[in-house]
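FW: tagging you since you asked about this chain on Friday. Here's the raw sequence from the shared folder, copied in full. Didn't touch anything.
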Amino acid sequence: MSGDSQARADDEAALIDAFLTMMAAEMGAAKNSLAAYRSDLRLASQQCDAALSQISTVGLTQLADQWSSLSHSSVARKSAVLRRFFGFLVDEGLRADDPTHVLPKLSRPRSLPKILSHDDIERLFAEVQTRLARVPAQNNAFRLAALLELLYGSGLRATELVALDVRAIALDRPFIILTGKGEKDRLVPISDRARAAVAAWLPHRPKGSNWLFPSGKRQHLSRIRLYQLIKELAAAAGVNPDRISPHVLRHAFATHLLEGGADLRAVQMMLGHADISTTEIYTHVNSKALVDLVNARHPLVDVATPRS
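HL: got it, structure written out here
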């Protein structure tokens, strides 16, 4: 392999590693899923004449043409991981365009997100309160409280949360304006509890950084470290760590709002979903809730049952 080819391969491997790190930290992807993603991306990179990350729509079409002998599920998986990969490159500013509109559009059953119960959430917050009540409370307890309140109380993505500027949350303003995926701005309400938690964190926050959650003077808290903190909190609170991640708390934010009667489109706006069908996945409710809803809200519920 020539020096240029080796350098290209190394650069591609680094990008794939960064993508998989994001999938683990933000999406809570399982080890088997990450291994499959890595295999698909490495194979796609090997099949390209140029670097996968720089491939054109023509090159991507030619790559997809090589999948003709594969099963429906394999093609769907490969298309899905490439769409995520190029979305990651665009979000990170590593590519200006997303060429994946040329990939096969195969329908796949959408899996339901992992669910946290209200009891699980209460356990997490109870553990944080226990840490805050210690004398003296550790600085990291105030940071963890602010992180948890913003994740569950506002539905922020992990990337958005760790990269917040220290001036982003004004204590007299109940919202922030974020630039999320696709460089689209959205208004995100910030609860009184979250603003209070941020206010309590600020006096303990390391100085000399513009980040709300700094890690050193020039870096902010990483997505991986946020992922680890949430896992550690879950274990201490008696919640199965395998069931939780920053993204699962975002799921809980949406699910619990909808269960409480929130408007679907309002939740869509708060989450920053371009397509409402993405938000609709959070409308899952259990059968008992459906039965209770019909019995309580059906217009004929107070009408006497006809006699036979």
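FW: The beta strands are 175-179, 185-189, 214-215, 219-220.
HL: agreed, and The chain is about 55% helix and 5% strand.
FW: great, closing this out.
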